[in-house]
């Protein structure tokens, strides 16, 4: 996938776990945790969505690399999703 | 307006999901009503045609008042006994998109607008016709709050409900507090190993086995689990744990999970994920709001160390868990870096003493060293 497609995939995953945010613009640099009061449950659900949408088996140790939209896109790009 | 709980006197209509003229089938979700405990879906129990909506979004309607007329006569192939609608809280799945006209307002934006006293109808949407958090924030800096009571989720009512319950708690319940700093290193190491062998979708937040162990320990301390009502304590047969969940934008709810001690870790994981998802989407079921026998409040990562919670009446205990921090800790006569969690039990002196809570904490600490027993 190219970057816009990956960005779309990540955005959809975010809306899926936080339906109250659907339609919100996501600042690509700011961590979700700081931007949307994401707690650990939101974050884990987001990782699950990301895994299901991308097919990528994301290791728990990689979670810190997935804090923001840009982080997620870079991570998935690097994994050749 | 159906009653969605014994203490409910009125509900605020948030939105109609059906319009006059729509054909309605039994089980359809007709409307969303905001109560003091959050948004509840109103489900229809008859087939028919929606003839008239008597309430508008934003209206506060007393329990028992007619909010809609359902016409059961002129639908071919349907036999309807009564022309009136009867509505009860829904357990149906949430429809993906509410059918509302005008610009789309994200639920988070609606909530923020409500909190700062803005009417979402006065906020200009973005280029794609959506009113989001940004549009609300921008609007709040350029306009003064309008006089109109904004429609939507009623955060003032939620705050009033929290205040009423907590004021009653402080007035009526003679609280005592017992607290321990507990070394959870063995537990967290076990969890890391457990998660390493699990696929992404099955991984556990530490809250899941934590709640399971808390509930398992409560089974042995029945004086902390039940209801105190009209001078009598009734211990509960199962541990129905209210889980305190913060809502984005403010407010707090503590919906319950049934029989936590009787669930496997994975059953509890699925229940908790489902519950949090429905808190986030603002769709809880009425039964979840009334039958907790104890409450767990877990502050979670990057929060604060200690929590001194207040009991939610008619319950008799609440357990607060602070964030897990690495601290110097003496173990086997030497100082080590260990992961420490402060756990506080608030108990009701009409039912138990600090000794009960101390015994509970000591048993809980012991169980945490054997997470493999789960």
Note the run of SSEs of chain A as H and E. HHHH
CATH-level-2 architecture of the largest domain in chain B:
2-Layer Sandwich
Termini separation of chain B: 44 Å
The proportion of residues forming helix of chain A, as a percent range, comes to 55-70%
Number of strands of chain A: 0
User: Which pair of protein chains has the largest interface, and what are the residue counts?
Assistant: A-B, 25 and 33 residues
The CATH superfamily of chain A is identified as: ACP-like
Give the CA-based shape of chain B.
globular
How many domain regions of chain B? Answer: 3
Helix/strand class of chain B: alpha+beta
Low-pLDDT runs of chain A: none
Query: Major β-sheet of chain B, in short?
Result: 6 strands, mixed
For the sheet with most strands of chain A, the description reads:
none
Instruction: State the distance separating the first and last CA atoms of chain A.
Output: 6 Å
Query: How is the largest sheet of chain B built, in terms of strand order?
Result: 11-20-19-18-14-17
If you compute it from the alpha carbons, what radius of gyration of chain B comes out, rounded to the nearest whole angstrom?
24 Å
Q: What does this protein structure show overall?
A:
- The complex is a heterodimer of chains A (81) and B (374).
- Chain A is mainly α and 81 residues long.
- Chain A contains 4 helices and no strands.
- The longest helix of chain A has 15 residues, at 3-17.
- The model of chain A has no long low-confidence stretch (mean pLDDT 91).
- Chain B has 3 domains: 10-89, RNA polymerase II/Efflux pump adaptor protein, barrel-sandwich hybrid domain (OB fold (Dihydrolipoamide Acetyltransferase, E2P)), CATH 2.40.50; 104-156, Dihydrolipoamide Transferase (Irregular), CATH 4.10.320; 173-373, Chloramphenicol acetyltransferase-like domain (Chloramphenicol Acetyltransferase, 2-Layer Sandwich), CATH 3.30.559.
- Chain B has 7 helices and 20 strands.
- In chain B, helix 1 packs parallel to helix 2 and helix 5 crosses helix 7 (354-368).
- The two termini of chain B are 44 Å apart.
């Amino acid at each position: 996938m190219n970057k816009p497609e990956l960005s779309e995939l990540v955005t959809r995953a975010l809306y899926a776990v936080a339906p109250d945010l659907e339609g919100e613009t996501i600042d690509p640099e700011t961590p979700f945790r700081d931007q949307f009061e994401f707690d650990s449950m939101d974050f884990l659900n987001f990782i699950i969505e990301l895994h299901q949408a991308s097919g990528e088996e994301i290791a728990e140790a990689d979670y810190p690399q997935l804090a923001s939209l840009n982080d997620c896109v870079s991570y998935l790009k690097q994994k050749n999703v | 307006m159906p009653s969605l709980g014994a203490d409910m006197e009125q509900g605020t209509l948030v939105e109609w999901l059906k319009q006059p003229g729509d054909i309605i089938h039994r089980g359809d979700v007709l409307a969303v009503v905001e109560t003091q405990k959050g948004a509840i879906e109103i489900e229809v129990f008859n087939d028919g045609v929606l003839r008239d909506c008597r309430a508008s979004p934003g209206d506060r309607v007393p329990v028992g008042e007619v909010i809609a007329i359902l016409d059961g006569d002129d639908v071919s192939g349907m036999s309807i006994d009564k022309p009136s609608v009867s509505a009860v809280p829904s357990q149906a799945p949430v429809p993906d998109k509410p059918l509302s006209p005008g610009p789309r307002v994200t639920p988070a934006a609606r909530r923020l607008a409500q909190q700062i006293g803005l009417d979402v109808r006065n906020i200009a949407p973005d280029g794609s016709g959506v009113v989001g958090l940004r549009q609300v924030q921008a609007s709040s800096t350029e306009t003064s709050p309008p006089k109109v009571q904004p429609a939507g989720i009623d955060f003032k009512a939620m705050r009033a409900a929290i205040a009423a319950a907590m004021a009653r708690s402080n007035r009526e319940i003679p609280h005592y507090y017992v607290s321990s700093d507990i070394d959870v290193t063995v537990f967290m190491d076990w969890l890391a190993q457990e998660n390493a062998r699990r696929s992404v979708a099955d991984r556990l937040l530490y809250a899941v086995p934590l709640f399971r162990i808390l509930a398992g320990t409560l089974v042995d301390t029945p004086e902390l689990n039940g209801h105190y009502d009209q001078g009598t304590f009734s211990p509960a047969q199962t541990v129905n744990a209210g889980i305190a969940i913060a809502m984005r934008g403010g407010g707090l709810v503590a919906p319950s999970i049934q029989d936590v001690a009787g669930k496997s870790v994975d059953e509890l994981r699925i229940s908790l994920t489902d519950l949090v998802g429905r808190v986030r989407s603002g769709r809880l079921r009425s039964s979840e709001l009334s039958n907790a026998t104890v409450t767990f409040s877990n502050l979670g990562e990057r929060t604060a160390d200690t929590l001194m919670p207040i009991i939610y009446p008619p319950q008799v205990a609440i357990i607060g868990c602070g964030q897990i921090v690495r601290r110097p800790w003496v173990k086997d006569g030497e100082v080590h870096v260990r992961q420490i969690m402060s756990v506080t039990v608030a108990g009701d002196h009409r039912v138990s003493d600090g000794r009960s809570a101390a015994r509970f904490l000591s048993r809980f600490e012991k169980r945490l060293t054997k997470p493999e027993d789960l």
